[in-house]
Structures are given as structure tokens and as C-alpha cells.
Amino acid sequence: MSTLAVRNLAPRIRAVSQLPVTRNVPTSTRLLGSLSGKAQLPIGSSPSNSAGISKPTTLDSRVFPVHYSSSSYSATSHPSADLQATDISITFPSSPAQSITLPYIWLRDSCPCPSCVHPSTRQKLHRTSDVPLDIKPKRLTWVHSLDKDAKWALEVEWDRPLWKHDTGSTGVEGHTAAAGHVGGEGHRSQYSERWLKTWSDESKVKERNQDSALSMIPWLAKDLAEEGGKSKLFFSYNEVQRDEKALLGALKQLTNYGLTVLRDVPTTITGEWELEKVANLLSHVRETFYGPLWDVRSLAAARNVAYTDLDLDLHMDLLYFENPPRYQLLHCLRNRNVTGGQSIFVDALQAAQTLWKEDREAFNLLATTDVGFHYINDGHHLAQRHKTIVVDPSSDPSSSSPPKITAINYSPPFQAPLPSSTPPAFYQALQKFAATLRRPEGRWEYLLKEGDVVVFDNRRVLHARRAFSGGSNGASAAGKKDAECNRWLKGCYVEADAVADRIRVLGTKLRVE
Amino acid sequence: MSTLAVRNLAPRIRAVSQLPVTRNVPTSTRLLGSLSGKAQLPIGSSPSNSAGISKPTTLDSRVFPVHYSSSSYSATSHPSADLQATDISITFPSSPAQSITLPYIWLRDSCPCPSCVHPSTRQKLHRTSDVPLDIKPKRLTWVHSLDKDAKWALEVEWDRPLWKHDTGSTGVEGHTAAAGHVGGEGHRSQYSERWLKTWSDESKVKERNQDSALSMIPWLAKDLAEEGGKSKLFFSYNEVQRDEKALLGALKQLTNYGLTVLRDVPTTITGEWELEKVANLLSHVRETFYGPLWDVRSLAAARNVAYTDLDLDLHMDLLYFENPPRYQLLHCLRNRNVTGGQSIFVDALQAAQTLWKEDREAFNLLATTDVGFHYINDGHHLAQRHKTIVVDPSSDPSSSSPPKITAINYSPPFQAPLPSSTPPAFYQALQKFAATLRRPEGRWEYLLKEGDVVVFDNRRVLHARRAFSGGSNGASAAGKKDAECNRWLKGCYVEADAVADRIRVLGTKLRVE
């Protein structure tokens, strides 16, 4: 949070505000820049002219007066700023010099001062739409930053207030009342060097949000091994509970690869379910019509193939939902005297990227053709359509690398009849995708052990189960007690947001420590 | 579920299968159709030739033999079927005659027989990608349907089996083992008239899924009144609990308008929270970092403007989530000796459609420009980007009616600084949208009464609250007991899928009763 924190600079602001806002600069003020409102006309000290005192130039009569000064108590090298028609161009005295160009409207809207971003709630106190389109700086000053990671801060005094919308037209007026002088004439914003460098640069914003820790890495089975052959997938539940670094490792494994296994999770079947604790360690349980937690055991007259001892083909869960749950947890409570029943996981994201490389047309068909999924059984009627491959609409279709894929929707057992108008080429495209998913190099097969909790990303990783024998199956299971069950998984779903939240908070904490 | 149910026709299938699969039709079989494999060549009896017996025509030598017959015990009018290169064209003897054309591959893939769709789990037992692209009918027969809503069923015997993928390459083989003869030579599919008419027609599929009960109706405040001036929004909680028709009414009000109020919900503040029961009546609680249920009361050092007595501008909750929760519930537990605090709701979907009509360029900018939202406070770091208007990518941009809008993302208090590269025109577009949202005719303002639960669609309806005075606010609230609180809302979030599920199930049930 410190990146946004700009402490209250009121005393200094008052000191600076004593400077008369005119073209005639008092001699008591040590100018480090010059004046200009002309588009493209460079003004201010260059990095090599760090203490360059220059006289105010004549202003273009069309533009506002700008008073550009440093604070009076420092003369060390500071960045320079050039005013253009609608932007400020700032050059940092680094080697090589780094320049950024920032629109006035963007700067005013993003003002991080305590009157614009509430110091306690961190909520923004004006609307982007309250900023006049033609707002301009009236005075620029380089001041010493109070942000410990930055030396200088750019103070901008604005030429006009924000728009206010009275209660009669909006029904809401409060933020202006709450924020005091927001919207007042001559609002002063301060932007530290670090703030400017972060928010002007997409890659730094992503770094700040730790996007790389959250990004999906497509995998084949071989990619799940560390150097030396050890699997990346397994984490000790004990360790993850007591060591935040281990927890962060497991969470990042999950977000990056969409698959991780926690080992030695207590399998007690009386009292509270340990799985709920695991879910709360990662996120929050997302309850569905299957309940908050549910059981995978073979049953007579099963309402789901999962609840039999049959083979269960590669699929995803709950695609008949608008937003299928992101992560699925399966806790192996019992697996004894059973033959078969291996779990299989395939990264459908990797398969989709492979398809993109091998058959662009098939990829595009899967990204644009609706497939329906439904669950109409047992007192429920759920139905939803999805594209098989969900491509981020911001992706550039002409790019030479695969577009950003946000989710895969592939679950043959829950498919509804396709729209009868489905183009014939779609069937061929789906066959190619299915063939890619079948490639042995993509498949990670594993027999769950009692105490394992496998966690996987239900929006990208397909799961399957081989048939088994020896589990309490069919009618014979009906009379059995829980403890007598030979094969029993307990499952639940959790959402992605809390996982990302924990990764960012732990990431920041562990970097700092 | 009855629409999909095709009962086991094994005895009849066996009877029909005694017909030799050759071009020479035995005289003992009463033919109601003729043979052809030629594209576009109409075959079979026309509707006006209901019992028309015709001799087999000579088959084009390139195509497979087709045996097209009725079952032997009926001669009443049945639909006709024409075989084309890759499709069957079926004409129903209605007035005017209704024709549909269905691809072979689609028909085979969609076979609803108990070997293709498991009778108990209702899950599909093969993959669309298992159907050979060039599969064709070998024999067509009109038989009496066992579906009570249909007279005839088309039986198709297929010329080749489904593909099988052995365990070595897929790791999954089971569904074939489970399903018996799926994939075998000469699989027979039966499609009742009703099944054919439903699944060949998008509008009927939508009707089956009760899309109109779920569709979003854009509104202005005046549209919330029934004829005669009574508001559509209010439902008695008592009635909704005991009368399924009232419950269905409230649920449809919610899905159609995104806003409803349940009245006289018990406000007991000891023991269990009634709000949890309300949430479970509609759906399931979606827990977030605010907890399963949370309180809106004014607090000292609030971490959220909601927890103050300040005005709270129009916004949506949790847009820093990947999938913000769909519905929000707010239960007014206490509201006494308080001035102000009215709730305001605006349909942002209506505003977006208005913008589409008035300024297409602004609409398109809002549909394509990323806006970041974040919550970086209080031990959390959540961040996400969304488009302000989310347009269904299947929408036709050249259509003369507004595209399908799946969600609006508008929440100024939680905005992060925009990307600095945001085009200047976006600011103008956002101002137009904000101005549209401010129009008084769109605003429904209401002072929550104790016992009210307002439920609204957080993905389309904005909410706001006027400032109030007299609630236990600031530091003075800290020492107060719950019962002494003057203004207290309890809230929670629920997802959309269970709401749609309940609407469909109740809709089917109440239509049948």
C-alpha cells in the first residue's frame, strides 16, 4: 500500500502557495524550470541543467499562465517536465534518461492525495467523469517527496475545479461534502517519482499486482518436474499451514499450473472436515446445489457418473453455470483394497495453444462457436452456453503469439445437443482439439493416496478418473457405514479472487521481511 | 425432463431390425417412404401422401443403401424425410407444412437414446468428437413415438460406429464399457417429432430453458409500476415462503429487472440470521473476504465508505473480483431516529442501451477500454480490470438493435488509476455514460424499512445511499450494543445459477399443475 501513500503535505503546500500565481516570478523563488504552454515546446531544466535557472519565457496568449518552480529549500538534480497541448512530458535524470508523457486529464483523475483517495478506506473520492476534459496545470513545482522510495515529487496546481453534480440530478452529492475541498479552485496534486514511474508503465502496474505470480503457464506432464526429477506438485500440508513461504509456493503452483497436491491432510471422518480448513486456507468455499462440501462415492442409482465406479472421461465441472467455479479441491479420505481409479489431469490451456499453432482455423471456430451444457435431473434445470476456448477480447488477432485465453469450456458428459446450425467445420475443429487433449505427453496420471488433497483450476485443467473395482459400489454400498467405504473423496469449490489476494499479500510481506 | 426422455424401445427396435438391410424391400414390409441418397432429391411420402407406398428408387452408386420404412403396424399420416448429401430434411404434415434440415453428424451426436444419454445421470455417454465426420443413415423408419407429446418418431440406423480411443492414448475408455453397444455397428437412434421440433429450433430451445423468464428487461423508474400504479418490486416474505407462485414471481422480478424487495422479513438479532434463510430460498451464499454475511453500520476508522454515515455514490460491489457476485441482498434490521439514508437504484443496462442509441462511438469505447478496480487495504490486495460495458462477443455489431450486454462494470470509488494510455475519447465517453446514469427518470429512490430485504443484480443495477444523520456513527458507536444501533443493514451475495435453476423448475412445475 505504501506505493500509493502520499502523506499529508499541507504545511508545505501552504508554503508553496504563498508564491503569487503570476508571470512575474519573485526573486525569492529559485526557479528550476521555465514557463511554456506551447505544444511540443520543451520547457524546464534538462537533466544536464540540473540547477539551471532560466527566466520565464513569454507565454502564448492562448494558454494559461504556468508557474513552474522547485520548492525553495533544495537545488539538487530533479526530473524535468515539458508542457504540451494536453500532456506533461517528464524526463527523469537517469542514465539513459527516461521520459514519460502523461495526459493532464489522467493526472488529475489519478491524483493520490488524501482529498482524492480517502486515507482510511483507500476509496477514490471523485469520479473520472467529474474531471473537465480541458483541465490544465496552472503551476508545476518539484518538491521533495515524502515517499521514502522517491526523492522528488511533482506538485501540480490545477486551473479549474472538478465538476459537481447537485443532489437534484444525481441523488448523490456526498463525496464532495465528505472530501472537503475536492473540486475546489486550485486543487494541488502531488505525484512522487515512484508513483509516476509505476502508473505510467503497464509493466510496473502488473508487477505491482504481481501478475507473474498469477499468470497461467501452459504445461505438458514433463513440465511438472523440477530439475532433478522431483515433482513440483506436492506440498506438505503441515508445512503449508505453519510456513507462509510454503503456502505462497503452493498457491503460486496453483495459479501458474492450475494443479497442486497437498499431502498428509488429516482424514478424520468424525467431527469437522479438514477439507473446509484447507479451503479456507486458500479462499472461501463456494457452495453449489451439491452443497458446500460433497462426496464422491459410488452409489446405486447415481445422479452423476462421478458417483459410480465407472470410467469418467476428461471433463470440467459445472459448465452449466454462468461462472463455473475456478478451483476444485478433492480430498482422498479413503482409498484401500481398490484396483484402478487413477486420476488424470490434462492442461487444456496448453492444448488450446498447441491448436492455435497447428490449426488457426480450428482454434478460431472453437473460440466463436457456442456449445450448450445442461444438468436437467434430480429436481434441477441448469443450462448455459459457452465458447470452448474463451479468448480475451482485448487480444490482437493478428499477433504472432497465441491470444490470451481466459478459460476453456470442455465437458462432453454435460453437453446439451449442439445448436443444429453448428457449422460442419466445428465438428472437425472439436475433433482436432480432442486429439490434442489425448496426446500422452499432456497427461499427468496419479493415484490419489489417503490424505492427499488435489487442487486444480477447473477453468483450464481437465480431470478424469479411470474405472475402479473394489470400492463400495452399487447397491451393496447402501448399507455400509462411512468407515467401511473403500474409496471416498470429499470435494468442494473455491473462487480465484481470494487466492490471488493471498498471493499478493504474502508476496509483498515475504519480499519485505 | 420429459422432453428428453425416450423410453426404451428395444422390443420395437428388434422388430424393425428384422427388416433386411438391402435395396430389395420385402413385400411383407409396408413402405411409407422411398429410397435415395442423392443430394437435394426429395424422397419419402409427402404430407399429402400420408400412406403412400412407393417402390424403392435406384440408388446413386456413390451412396450407401438406405432402407426407409414405417413400422409395420400403422399407416396414419407421418412426417416425410428427404436425404441430402449431409443432412436429412424433414417435413411435418402441419398446415402450413413445416420443414427442418438436420445434419447427419448433428443427429448422431445428439441421439437421446439410453445408450447415448445415461437414463439415471442424464449425462452424455460419448463425445461429439467421437462421431465420424462422414457418418450417414443406413435405414430410416417412422415409428410410433412413446413420447406422450409426439405421435411419430424417426428411427435412424447408422452406417458406422463411433470412434473409440483406446486407454493407451486417452487414459479413459470407460463410457464405451459402461454404455454397452454405443459405438457398435448399426446403432439405432430414435427422435420423436417433439424432440426434432425442439432441438432444431433455437427459439424452442430457449423456451425450454425459459430464457424469457431469465432475460434482462431494461427499466426506467416508471417501468417499475404495474398498471394502476402499484409497484412491481414488493413481495411479502411470508407469501414467498409458503406460495411457490409468489416465490416464482419474486425470482422473475429479480432476473427481469434486477431489483426486488421482500417485506416483513424478521429482524431478530439474536440467534440465526433470517437473511441466511432468504439467501437459501433464492440461491446459496457466496462468501467473500467480508464473510458469508456482513454488516453495514457506521464505524470509526471505517475501511469502507459504506461503513460511515456519508453519502455513497452510485457503484457496484466487488468489481476487483474476476467474477463479481451477481446478486446482493441487504436486510434492513434497524432504521429508526435517522434522517436521510435513502437507497437509490439505477439500471445501468438501460443507460448503456440509451448510450448505444445516442452515441455509438462512446458505447464502443466503453465496451473496449479497460478500467482497473482495486482494493488494497486492511491486509488485502485485490485488483482486476474490466470493460465498463461487457458485450456478448456473439453479438452482431452491424445489427440495428443494441447488442446483448452481459454485465456493466461501473464503480468509481474502487477505480484504480486508469492505464495512462487510455484514449482521450474514453474520458468523454465515460462522461456521457455518467450523465445518462444521472438522469432523474432512471432513478428509483427508496428509504428501506425495518424488515425489508432489497435484492438487486450487482452486475447491472447500481446502488447508492444518501448521507444520513442520527445513526450510531463515528467513535460513539464503538461502545454501543447491537440493539442500540439506529441504522443497521445486514448483507450477503448470492450467485445467479441457482436462481435460474429455481425459476426453471418452478416454471415447469406450476405450468404442469
Properties at a glance:
23 strands; metal-binding (chains A, B); 2 domains; 513 residues; Double-stranded beta-helix; iron (chains A, B); elongated; alpha+beta; NE0471 N-terminal domain-like; dioxygenase (chains A, B); metal ion binding (chains A, B); homodimer; four-stranded mixed β-sheet; six-stranded mixed β-sheet
Q: Helix segment count of chain A?
A: 14
Largest sheet of chain A: 6 strands, mixed
Task: Bin the helical content of chain A.
Answer: 10-25%
Q: What is the topology, as strand order, of the major beta sheet of chain A? A: 8-9-20-12-23-10
User: How many strands in all of chain A?
Assistant: 23
Identify the CATH class of the largest domain in chain A. Answer: Alpha Beta
- The helix/strand class of chain A is alpha+beta
Instruction: Note poorly predicted spans of chain A.
Output: 1-65, 70-75, 166-183, 473-478
Broad shape of chain A: elongated
